[in-house]
User: Fold this.
Amino acid sequence: MTQQQKWDPQRYARNAGFVATLGMPVVELLAPQPGERILDLGCGDGVLTQKLAEMGCDVVGVDASADQIEAARERDLDAHVVDCHNLEFDKEFDAVFSNAALHWMKRPAEVIAGVRRALKPQGRFVGEFGGAGNIHQVQVALSAALTRREIDMETLWPWYFPTPEEYQAELQAAGFGVQSIELIPRPTPLPGALTDWLETFAESFLPPIPTEEHANFFQEIQDAAQASLCDEQGQWTVDYVRLRFAAIQESA
Ligand code: BEZ
Assistant:
């Protein structure tokens, strides 16, 4: 059982503001039309949800984090705390959109079944998230730091990074026709150090480690990843790989 990642909207905006900015290509793939009713799955603090609303869409945002939903509501969005493995919407959306969230949902069949129920017939499911090979160099450094402490990474691993073939099979099994699906390497410069990124996103690995050792643990990972992820000017760039897809709900 993995520990729930906690989301602090201020820390997220400081260390991960790039997530929404770099999400615009998937908004373009969605091609939202004014008046369309759209579900933003894993909307976080609602930056992209707000973009969809500004494009004239009738948008609902859902996210498992109450803190992030509070931040989304402060943007005046229709946003709700929901476990995206248990969506209860019924044929009400023209499209379901998701950016940088599906890799946090480890039971894809349950998520996709809920998305299918939420869509009107022929509705679109368009998204982008971490795919196979995502953050590989971070994983190598993390694995070494955990192994040194005799901690099993597998049981704490909070992410789902499928290949296009695996995710396409999940979509098709649920009655989606897949229009496009591709892996896109997207090395992503960070606004700060890798330790800031780890503090924002890697809490799931902390429970077996004494609190007073947390800072050392993240520093050790950063030191191990320095050669592969940091340039001579001190700019950190994480080896993100996106899985971007567009699918259509085909069966009634
Ligand atoms: C991602 O967007 O790929 C990602 C973000 C945080 C942790 C792991 C992956």
